[in-house]
Amino acid sequence: MSATVSREGNASVAGVNGPVLGDADFRFLREFVLQHCGIALSEQKRQLVQGRLLRRLRALNMKDFGSYCDLLRRDPDGEMGDLASAISTNVTSFFRESHHYDLLEKTLIPQWLAHKRRQGDRLRIWSAGCSTGEEPYALAMVLAEALEKHGAPFDAKILATDLSPQALQGAREGVYSLDKMDGISAERRRRWFLRGEGSYEGLACIHPRLRELVTIQPLNLLHDWPMAGLFDAIFCRNVVIYFDKPTKERLFSRYAKQLEPEGYLFLGHSESMHGLSDDFDLVGRTVYRKRAS
Fold first, then answer.
1. 254 assigned to active site
2. 18 & 77 share domain
3. Which residue is catalytic, options 25, 64, 82, 162?
4. CATH code, domain carrying 271
5. 140: exposed, middle or buried (Cβ count in 10 Å: 0-12, 13-18, 19+)
6. Which of 61, 87, 113 is the last residue of a domain?
7. 52 given a catalytic annotation
């Protein structure tokens, strides 16, 4: 093992498995990630960050972490998505936390459709942190089935956003391995998936009808939101678990402003809004309803 000392006294160490993340570079990365992604990295995360970012160094043909930090200083927006993908864990599945979908299917969507049909309004759901698409496409299945029962055309859409370019690419492709089908009923598998052929042999492809309902866009939750209209429901599950308290408070406040009166916010099973917002009431398991103004 050899080491040299770079700017700010940062040790740029070359180990047997590649460069080692030194103090100054890790300090910069922690501050950068907190500022731009809202993710608080503890000292205990250093080895995890080093291991995951080594792949980015190899992909970019960089020899050390100092070079990668320089890239972030020069072009923070250009590398943001790949950095966030590297340091966060994208674990998702179809119909994860099924009680959320049950509430939508049996109660909320029928109520919304009945009310909005009289008002001539639209229905909008946002999957914030959509990862590789399992969540928004599961939402689309429930919505498409409700629209069929409703029996008439209706302006209903799902917005799916994420910071990770790799995750968004997977969502846009809408192609999944068969082991991803475990949470989907046999009836829905037959109805909403196409059998892959050729290079997609052994895979399942999302039905075009679901693609029509889902709009997929890149978005950093900490930056400006371009959406003009309000949402009936926002799914932000297993996302805020990475954020520090001030970031959570700001995000929940922004969600409240982006929701219709008495709109719903769905969080992940290990997440809570307790002590972080006065804009919502807890109405179910990690289900929050915006308070009437």
1. no
2. yes
3. 162
4. 3.40.50.150
5. buried
6. 87
7. yes
